[in-house]
Amino acid sequence: MGLFKKKEIKVINVEGKRIELQPKPKKGLSALFGGGAKRQPKPQQIVGPAAQPQRPVPQPQQRPAPQPVQPAEKPAQPQQSQQQVQKKMQSRASSAWRHYIEKLAIKNRKIEPMLLQRRMRESLYDFIQRMLIASIIVAVVIAAAMLLVLVKAGVVLPVALVLTVLIGYVVNRFAFNSFLRYPLRSEEIAAKNVERDILFAARNMIISLRSGMPLYNAIVSVSSGYGDASKEFAKVTEKSNLGMSLEEAIDQTVSETKSQSFRRIMLQVSASIKAGADIVASLQSVTDQLSEERMISLRRYGQRLNAIAMFYMLFGVILPSMGIAIATILTTFISVFTVNVALLEAAIVGIVFLQVIFLQLIRSSRPVFAM
Question: How far is CA 247 from the centre of its chain?
């Protein structure tokens, strides 16, 4: 009765684990009745004490409420000494002063070529700094003098201080602009000094060339004895001795000079050399033109001087003397004002100021050349 026979189950211990083994199915009635489908083996079950317990599912932990972050205390800084504070203030003041000078240098870049032409060795920054310091000194001196005059005249001190500051500022700006024009003014003075003797030097060159002397030797002969005009001719000979051709030396010197007469003479010489023309004839024509122009300038100066003399006699001599006399006579009959010492002193200062203005006007209009 194999059908009703009890199945035997084998148990095996593997590393302390009990494993039940299912027996293989035998071919019997299941095969006869067409049970061709294979049985799927049951999953092996692990029983006994060796079975591992299931792990508990971890529960989510509740996070504590965030606490406000307190700012960290800054470490106590050591107290700075008084010398360090003074050094910092001095460095800031020096940097501000340097920045102001640099701004002025940027605005007045056109002065730098003039400094190079005048052969001044200082830079543009140093020149502007020196002129600014000089203008500040002049403004402080004039402002201090005006403060003393105003206080002595009885002006209230606050008003006197305000007026003094305004006067000092105006004087400072005027003096600084005047000092910045020093290179340009010095160039104008140098050009006038060249104009004074250039005509005599040109005539000497013409005489030397007519006698058969070469042009270079003629220029060397006028490189001394004619004041500032000789310095311009000396520049030509110096550049020629350094290796330049005579034409290049003349053209470069002409581009650097401020004298119109020297430029006209030497440009005519350079053009004659390049064209192969007669240098003596070209120089003679230029000197004749310069002589005629100077005669015309002298006539204009004579006409201008007559007008200046008339205004000088009217405002510098007649009006002050007659004005004081008429004011003295009127005050004896009409008590509008009284002529006192202070009024006379003010009149004297005004007369002296007018004299200086007229003398400067006459001096500036006078031609500097000689015939």
Answer: 37
The alpha helices in the chain, defined as continuous H runs, are 29-32, 82-107, 111-117, 124-152, 157-180, 182-210, 215-221, 228-241, 246-256, 260-275, 279-312, 319-333, 341-365
Least confident of 4-8, 240-244, 275-279, 366-370: 4-8
Pull the structure tokens for residue 269: 């010489």
Residues of the chain with pLDDT > 90: what percent? Answer: 9
The reported pLDDT for the residue numbered 364 is: 78
Residue 205, judged by CB atoms within 10 A of its CB (0-12, 13-18, 19+), counts as: buried
- What value does the mean pLDDT of the chain take? 77
For the segment 183-209, the average pLDDT, to the nearest whole number, is 85
pLDDT at 52: 47
| Region at 274 (left for phi over 0; alpha for psi -120 to 50; beta for the rest) | alpha
Matching residue, tokens 């340009």: 184
Closest CA to 132 of 94, 95, 177: 177
Helix (H, G, I), strand (E, B) or coil at 13: strand
Q: How far out from the chain centre does Cα 225 lie?
A: 42
Secondary structure letter of residue 154 according to DSSP: T
Cβ atoms of 209 and 283 within 8 Å: the answer is yes
**Using CB atoms within 10 A of its CB, is residue 14 exposed (0-12), middle (13-18) or buried (19+)?**
exposed
- Which residue carries 């470490």 as its tokens? 75
CA–CA distance, 113 with 118 (Å, rounded to integer): 9
Higher-scoring residue by pLDDT: 72, 325: 325
Token pair 């406000």 is found at 68
297 φ, ψ (degrees, to nearest 5):
-65, -40
Summarised one tens digit per residue, pLDDT across range 55-80 is 555 555 555 555 555 555 554 444 55
How far apart are the C-alpha atoms of 87 and 91, rounded to whole Å? 6
264: its two tokens: 């006209």
**pLDDT band at 141; cut points 50, 70, 90:** very high
